[in-house]
């Protein structure tokens, strides 16, 4: 420690002034302005710059740190709301006592001499200093500092302690961490702390650069795709294929408005890409176009409002049919159980609204012709407020009637189930498979076996 001094106090908010560093400071508080005026009246123009403690607004001895910097005031610009001054840090100092000087604070301070390394030629210290300089140069480049500024700091400063202070002043760290660096009198300790902060900041900048590169790469891919599409549109216009491009864009826009499952979305995107590459007059393009149009016409995200009013259902069954008490009771019992199961389910998870819907059920009506099997199914649909779809399987001998034909076949058509779903316009119709007992078997397969895949929940949901 050296001689004792008494200087006006310049309280700083979230700012730490290091020795050897010149910084612009703004001041507007009355106590601060009076302290500056007192310092300007002295020949040395010196002032004690010290940071206020966190979450402290009023200037008081208890709200100030003990460690600060003896600084000299340079240029001063006065304005309506205060002053702007250039402050140059000279030396570290510690306040032994704060006291009121009539409107501002003064401090009894002593200069704090830094502790040099025991052996400046020690390989460990030399390696630490060299590593700190390398990391500082790297940080300066990654931070976007002007090259001449980085070069000036690296080449113009040879003293390890002063170098540590200059780097600390440019680190993007918390004010509390800056205060710790200011209070570190040992040069070796200060270099180690600066190195740790520099390496941490380099890691943050590298991570930010990686994120920025990924974003730019994604944006670049999108811009490239847009450019290629515009070029493709121009080429097709020259070849007279502009109508096909418009048709593909219309298909793409249709699918953008449909809430497809993830697997279906990937398949549609793949087929659209194939359609863009295919010759419009080729058989492949026609097959892909027919497939995509069929997929787009299905009610992926359309569900009719279901009514499970048992009283109304009983009235509708009575209106449409005379007698058949056992059948009507069985239907009402089915609806009652369905209502209870639906009420017992909690709210669906976001994006899984279908989870709260009870799974479909199968009702089997058996009886001679004309007793009302088909009409009962139609009444159930009316009672539940669902679309009604009927397909007749009488005489069907080809399993393609159920599954649909392979897309590679000329004139391939979807099966009757898919056609029925398109006709219903909703994903929850009452679906009547009429005349199931009249299915036939031929060399083209057994449609009854294909029907098992339709009716078995373990197979039709996979």
**How do the strands line up in the largest sheet?**
1-3-4-5-6
SSE string, helices as H and strands as E: EEHEEEEHHHHHHHHHHHEHHEHH
Radius of gyration from the alpha-carbon trace, in angstroms: 41 Å
Tally of strands: 8
Give the oligomeric state.
single chain
Query: Per the principal axes of the C-alpha atoms, what is the gross shape?
Result: elongated
CATH superfamily of the largest domain, called what? P-loop containing nucleotide triphosphate hydrolases
Summarize the model shown.
The protein has helices spanning 30-41, 123-143, 147-156, 160-170, 175-183, 187-238, 242-256, 262-277, 283-297, 310-320, 325-343, 373-384, 400-403, 416-424, 447-455, 457-460; strands spanning 4-12, 22-27, 46-51, 67-78, 83-100, 105-111, 388-392, 430-434. By secondary structure, the chain is α+β, with helices and mostly antiparallel strands. It folds into four domains: 4-111, LON domain-like (Archaeosine Trna-guanine Transglycosylase, Chain: A, domain 4, Roll); 114-240, Methane Monooxygenase Hydroxylase, Chain G, domain 1, CATH 1.20.58; 252-297; 310-343 and 361-460, P-loop containing nucleotide triphosphate hydrolases (Rossmann fold).
Can you lay out the helices and strands and say which pair or pack?
Blueprint: E1 4-12, E2 22-27, H1 30-41, E3 46-51, E4 67-78, E5 83-100, E6 105-111, H2 123-143, H3 147-156, H4 160-170, H5 175-183, H6 187-238, H7 242-256, H8 262-277, H9 283-297, H10 310-320, H11 325-343, H12 373-384, E7 388-392, H13 400-403, H14 416-424, E8 430-434, H15 447-455, H16 457-460
Parallel strand pairs: 1-3, 7-8
Antiparallel strand pairs: 1-6, 2-5, 3-4, 4-5, 5-6
